[in-house]
Amino acid sequence: MRFLRQNLGLKLLALFLALCAWSIVRLTAAPTGETPAQRVFFKPLQVTPPEDPDLVYKVGHQEVVITLRGRRTVLEKIEPGQISVDVDLSKRVAGDYMAKVDVLAPGGAEISDVHPTHVWVQITRSEAAFKPVRVQLLGRPAEGTHVGTPAAEPRSVRITGPPGNVDEVQAVVAPVNLAGLDRTFSTRARALEAVDANGRAIESVEIQSEGVDITVPIEVVHEARVQTDRVTVRRAPGWTYVISADPPKVTLEGPAGSEMPDVVHTEPWIVQHATRSQSRELRLVLPEGLRVAGEARVLVSVLPTRTSSPAP
After folding, report:
1. Hey, CA dihedral for 180, 182, 187, 189, is it positive or negative?
2. pLDDT digits over 112-159, tens only?
3. Which among 206, 216, 251, 257 is most buried, taking Cβ atoms within 10 Å?
4. How far is CA 218 from CA 25, 142, 155, in A?
5. Can you tell me the distance from the alpha carbon of 226 to that of 268, in angstroms, rounded to the nearest whole number?
6. Alpha carbons 55 and 64: distance in angstroms, whole number
C-alpha cells in the first residue's frame, strides 16, 4: 500500500494521459458506426531485373493477391496503381531462389495478407541465337489478285534469353495485313513474335531487332483462252483437222493497271498432213509485262479425220 501511495499524483496524471491518447486513437481509426473492412486486389508482379545485363530470369508467379484492411471509406478510394508489388533481383547472381514479394500500400490501409509471399525465381546466363523470319499474311487481298512469295530482309534475327527458351524457338513471326490490297506491298513489321514448332509464343526471350522489311508481291490475275489460229495445217483432200490446246485456258498475271487480253496466241507451227494425230509443245506469245501462272507453254494437238474415201 505504501508503494501505491508514493508519487500518487504523478501516477494518476500518467493514467489520465494514457486514457486520453487511447481515446484519440480510437476516434481517429474508427469513427462512430464504421467497422474495419477488407478489400482484395490482384496485381501483376513487377520484377527489378539483375544489374548484370547478361543475366536473364524466370519467375514462377505472374500475379499476386493482396488483401488490405482499414476503414471502408479509405479502402474505396484506393486505386490499384497505388499499390506496389515488387521482387528485387538487382543484386542476385545466377541460381535458383525463393524471392520475397515486397508490397507497399497507401497510408491508412493495413496489409493483412499477401499471396504468395515468396516466388520461385531462376536466374541464368543469357544465350543468343539467330532464328529465321517467317512472314504471316493476314487478311484477304482484293478480288482478282494473286499473292506471290513474300520476301523478308533480314531473313533471320537474333534472339536472347534462357537457354531452354532459346532452343524452343523455331522462327520469328512477322505479321503483315493484306486486307483489300491490289498491288505489291512493302512495309516494316515491328510486332515480331518468337514461336515454337507448333506456332505457340515463347516467353522470356528478347528479339534483338527494330523490325523486318517485308515485300509481298500482289498482282492482277485474269483467265485467257488459248488461241491456235497460228497453227497451219497442209491439208489433204478428203480430210478434216481438229486443233486443240492443253490446257485450253491459262491464268495471266501482271502489275496493277495492266490491260488483260481475253485470248493469247501460240507461236506459229506449220503441220504437214499425216494420217495420225500430231502434237507439239508451243510457247505462248504474251503481251509485254504479263506472264502465265505456271508454264508459259501449251501442248497443241492436230487430229486428222477422213471425211470421204479417196477417188479410184
Report:
1. positive
2. 999 999 999 989 888 999 999 999 999 999 888 889 899 999 999 999
3. 216
4. 76, 9, 20
5. 13
6. 24
